[in-house]
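Q: I have 200 residues here and want to know how they pack in 3D. Can you give me a structure?
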Amino acid sequence: MSLKEFTLGVLENYVTTAAVAPSSRYLAQAMLEPLPLSRTRVAVELGAGTGVMTQGLLAALPREATLFAFEINPRFQQFLRRKFTDPRLVLIDASAATVGEELRNRGIAQVDAAVSSLGITYMSFKKRHAIMGGLTSFFTEQTVFTQYHYVHGLLPWYQIEDGRLQRFDAADLLKQYFRTIERKFVWLNVPPAFVFACRR
């Protein structure tokens, strides 16, 4: 995807895209490295965007695996459908908040690996928990989940929720769902980012 197309996609809805540039290969590597992809049968990608993570996932997943990729930006959806013809990829035009319902409707009982490029900072508390609760209900002790967070997003973030001013912290959110959380900093990305690798 050209930078112009990407910028148009961002401008159409920055809140759902929450990015200023496509993810670098260094960020993609940091996101995918902790995942048990060689033994994964079902993988989930939240916020496929321009397919940087998607491409890496498809390159590493076994032939019999299935990748469910969620993307609601119409411009990015069209690009992904043109770029990828791999039958293992199932592109889902639905909010990540419906991930539990979408997987159940497809008869999925277990997810082995999941990556999220969602801008969770800009979401409501209710939506964050709908996503995390819905997705982690398919996890086992061996499942690994990765989420990146831009470095500026680690600054204190406050939002009005249910008429009250509340503080959001990505690490605090993840601690509610995972027992083990490892963090890695990726300088070579615009902007630099932290990658959280999480296990139940």
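Q: Anything worth noting?
A: Residues 6-11, 14-19 have pLDDT under 50 and may be disordered. The chain has one domain: 3-199.
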